[in-house]
Amino acid sequence: MESAWDSFAGELIEKHQLIKYLPGEFNNEIDLIRRLAAVPGLCESFRSWLLALPNVRPDGAEKSDKFRERGNDIFKSKQNNHLALEAYSKAIFAAPEGSEALALGHANRAVLLIRFASYHEAFDDCCLALAGRYPEANRLKIFFRLAECAQKLHYFHELRAVLKDIEEYSVTRPLSEAEKVKFSEWKKGLESMDPCSFDDGESLFKNSGDLPTLQEKTGATAGRYVVTVEEIKENGIIAQESAVSFVPVYDSLSRSTLPSFDCQKCAKVNVIPFPCASCGRACYCSSKCRQQHAALHRYECFGYRKHLWHLIGIAHLGIRSFLVGFGTILSEIRTRRDSAEAWFQELTRECEDNRFAEYGRVFRLVTNFDQMKKDDLLHYSMAGLMLAIYLRECTTFFPERCSLFTSMKQSELFVLSGALIMRHIGQLVCNGHAISELRAVLPSAGDCLEEEGFQLKPGLLHRYFTSSRVFTGIFPRISMFNHSCDPNIRNSFEGSRLTVYATRPIDAGGEIFNCYGPNYKLMRACDRYMHLRHQYCFVCNCKRCTARDDDFYREVYHRLVCPGCGKYFAVELDPEQLIEGFTCKVCGHKISCSWNATIVGIVESNEPYSKPLLQQCLTAYEECARLLIGNNQTKLEIMHAIFDRFLPSAGLDEFCLDVLKKLAVEFVSIRRHQFGRISLEYIVGCFFLIDLLAIEYCSSGGFTVIKDSAICQMLSDFREALSIVGVGNRTFILRYLEKYVKSSPEVKV
User: Fold this and answer.
1) Helix or strand or coil: residue 181?
2) Which CA distances in Å does 633 have to 569, 577, 637?
3) What is the pLDDT of residue 201?
4) Are 295 and 323 in contact (CB under 8 A)?
5) Strand (E) or helix (H) holding 664
6) What is the pLDDT of residue 350?
7) Dihedral over Cα of 479, 474, 238, 516: its sign
8) What are the start-end ranges of the H helices in 256-314?
9) DSSP characters over 564-614
10) Distance from the Cα of residue 274 to its chain's centroid
11) What is the model's pLDDT at position 352?
12) How far is CA 577 from CA 161, 234, 621, 652, 659, in A?
């Protein structure tokens, strides 16, 4: 879907006939940005477009008050505490900076967070309420909430400070008897508390030990590539790297008025959100992360208010990389006379020990500007120019930076900035990594959590989590790994830290291969060729692409058997064929797909569950399974639809439970074959099976123990696969397993 930016850029290209301003051969980014900046009226068009973008969040506290009042109503009626929590968070997002509505939103949310034992977040909420315009007459109750959190977290100094505040406040508003008792308990607790001990939460990263020695080489055809100096065993760690910069992923499913609850500083996902009070869009897991990110965010805040970053996609990471790294080279370029002189050789030289550290490593990544289509090159250069205009017209970046320069004029710094941003955009198109995680559904979209605390109701794991791209990051060292459609590594993210593991043994001197998206199990060779050629400007020469019989994707995941001649053949069934049927490629027999109409009719009907209804669906599926054999992808999609329809009824009778469990085992097996057992796709594929086991456990009064060896093996693989999800999601899922899914210790897996 074309964004407003794409549409506007297209109009400008046509209006100003910008293609004629491109040089015959690409020289460098400075040259191209300077050419475009000189086009009459172009910069002014960009400026007008930026300033005319509407604000995402309307001014005023009315919207915030409505969300908070809704939260109060839900809380008082005891409908659903998680819905109330969501309403309070929405009130915080909507509240204007410095308003009473913002302070009230934080104060009200703290009540629920204390009830959920989320004391870190509740502590922050109380502090923000007190630092804001919370009504003076009611501040004592916030002091008490703050004291409770400080006591639970063993925050000695914070507890001592808030008890002093309570004492001073009680001079004008005497404490009640109950408040005096609580105050006395906290004072006694403070006396026994160690001033040097405090709970700072769980460590996010663990030391993974020594890493193998990797060596970068250069080849005539492969360009730069990476080999291992020593042997690496299967599942051995190859490399670890933290993202130099990362930004949220914006797609067609992104909420226009409420961002995803993920931290832009530490990359934790599914957090209690602490948004920037000014833009109400940039999200953080704590006030600490928000404060640490403020120096960078102040240059992006205006763009968030205008929804600009959602419109420009990967270009957001381009300007983020520029803002993160510009200070690294500032001392070197501040005495240069113009942008061309500042575009100096040492920054761009291709060596591992580039003295500009991580930013230098980013800068040496390829852009493919000299190989890509002129239309693509023009769009990237326009994005670079537009973002330089954004920094000049909508932020304080240039006035602040220009004061540090002794020779370069602001006009030259403007060209340099646009060129750097353009370069990063081109690099990220070829080198950006998708950071994937499990996204939790909001309470308003699915009633999945127990009333008290963050515990999942049995049978709803598959509805609560989905696999999603949450961030796009740049990892310059790991970006040196070349592509293969059959890679020998897998990626695991913990926040913004990437750990790379070997999927099979790699001999000493062997090359490390990543997959840039087109995997031989997921795409045909011709589709992989087109994707890699268009986005990455190369032709893949891996074994899967050079082999003449490379039809794995079709033969394995789209295989059928003709009911007429009994011969096997492969075809990717489209929706029309599933309705009207298709012809056998071997004998020409007309094959009916009437079973599909039966399944679709049942799945989409509102008819209440009954055993005959499920039996009818099962009979149709058995006909489907006789036609679509093995690891057929279409069969997988049909099973998914059956689970969505009947899993909520699995606890009603034993027949339904047994039927769905058998389908779930087959479903998980196909997912494992297609994506591997340590993958988010395998994890999500296991959710149906795990939910059915949880339902079975609850239906039997909590006495069922799993003894099936195949299921136990899947559960063992599932637990191992959870190592690739973040610690918060991993802990949440393991708690669900421990509560509802009991494997027999006698079954060897």
Assistant:
1) helix
2) 14, 15, 6
3) 41
4) no
5) helix 654-675
6) 52
7) negative
8) 287-297, 301-305, 308-312
9) TT--EEE----HHHHHH-EE-TTT--EE--HHHHHHHHHHH--PPP-HHHH
10) 17
11) 52
12) 71, 42, 17, 35, 27
Which tokens go with 294? 């403020």
Q: Compute the radius of gyration of the chain from its Cα atoms.
A: 29
Helix and strand totals (H; E) in the chain:
32, 14
Query: Helix or strand or coil: residue 482?
Result: strand
* Cα–Cα distance measured from residue 537 to residue 530, given in angstroms and rounded to the nearest whole number: 10
DSSP string over 515-559: --S--TTTS-HHHHHHHHHHHH-----SHHHH-TT--HHHHHHSE
- Residue range 414-438: mean pLDDT, rounded: 94
Q: Is 702 left (phi over 0), alpha (psi -120 to 50) or beta?
A: left
Here the tokens at position 688 are 């149906």
3-state SS string over 330-398? HHHHCCCCCHHHHCCHHHHCCCCCCCCHHHHHHHCCCCCCCCCCHHHHHHHHHHHHHHHHHHHHHCCHH
Q: Which amino acid is present at 507?
A: D
Provide φ and ψ at 258, rounded to 5°: -145, 115
CA distances from 159 to 137, 146, 156, 333, 372 (A): 21, 8, 5, 48, 60
Cα angle 495, 496, 497 (rounded to 5 degrees) comes to: 95
Q: Encoding tokens for residue 367?
A: 């852009």
Residue 449's alpha-carbon distances to 7, 81, 322, 459, 697, in angstroms, are 42, 10, 41, 11, 18
The mean pLDDT of 327-335, rounded to a whole number, is 84
pLDDT in tens, 567-601: 999 999 999 999 999 999 999 999 999 999 999 99
Per-residue confidence band for 209, with pLDDT thresholds at 50, 70 and 90: low
pLDDT at 524: 87
CB 596 within 8 A of CB 578: yes
Both tokens of 172, joined, read 């004008």
* Confidence band, pLDDT 50/70/90 cuts, at residue 329: confident
Residue 75: which pLDDT band, with cuts at 50, 70 and 90? very high
Place of tokens 């928000």: 290
CA distance 637 to 643: 10
